[in-house]
Amino acid sequence: MRLFTIPIAVLLCFFQVVLTTNGIPFSTRAYWMRRANQALGELSGSPCPFAPFGTAVVNHTDTDGFGDLICIGVNQNRQIGNPSLHGEIAAIANCTAILTDPYGRFRLTASEAQAAFADLTLYTNAESCPMCASAIRWAGFKEYVYGTSIDTLVRKGWSQIHISSLEVFQASLDLMSRTVLIGDVLANETDPYFLWQFDPTYPCPDGCLHSGNGTRCRAFTRDELR
């Protein structure tokens, strides 16, 4: 019953909100979710990376409401060989480097950078695994916004640890920070990024075609574009 005795403001952390939240309209949320998708091509080097998990971290505080992009990140498991470098973890690392760069925009100390996450919103095109959802809570983000749900990933053949972000948030009541959870934002646009990997009949993303036994997509070569 503990969940029902805490203030309403805290309860907002544990329920998905799909329309305007914290004064930010859905159109702005959609823009940044698309920006998380765009990060895939920028950082992966491919129009059809197999693990197309993209993230954008934005500051909606002290701006005109549209937001200021702080950093982006994508899943880098295959490029680097680090199994923990999911898109969200990569973005957190990238943001930390940007916030603390002594020659950069912000030039924050380590403690100032840690505190800065309380003003930031993390957009990710798919619901975070429990590792990443926990990292989001430990970082103390102001908001966490995702597109495609874990349930959809599982139905489409993705291996997942079956713990939702909501469950992670419900188990993190003892943390000092409070993070608003906003799910299923622009899922109609994020879902297609995750539908072809285990379905050879599903069309490849633009700029790619099926290869081998049809279970993979690869980018066109120059000769194939002629």
TrEMBL record:
<dbReference type="GO" id="GO:0052717">
    <property type="term" value="F:tRNA-specific adenosine-34 deaminase activity"/>
</dbReference>
<dbReference type="Pfam" id="PF00383">
    <property type="entry name" value="dCMP_cyt_deam_1"/>
</dbReference>
<dbReference type="InterPro" id="IPR016193">
    <property type="entry name" value="Cytidine_deaminase-like"/>
</dbReference>
<keyword id="KW-0732">Signal</keyword>
<feature type="domain" description="CMP/dCMP-type deaminase">
    <location>
        <begin position="28"/>
        <end position="169"/>
    </location>
</feature>
<protein>
    <submittedName>
        <fullName>Cytidine deaminase-like protein</fullName>
    </submittedName>
</protein>
<dbReference type="GO" id="GO:0002100">
    <property type="term" value="P:tRNA wobble adenosine to inosine editing"/>
</dbReference>
<dbReference type="InterPro" id="IPR002125">
    <property type="entry name" value="CMP_dCMP_dom"/>
</dbReference>
<feature type="signal peptide">
    <location>
        <begin position="1"/>
        <end position="20"/>
    </location>
</feature>
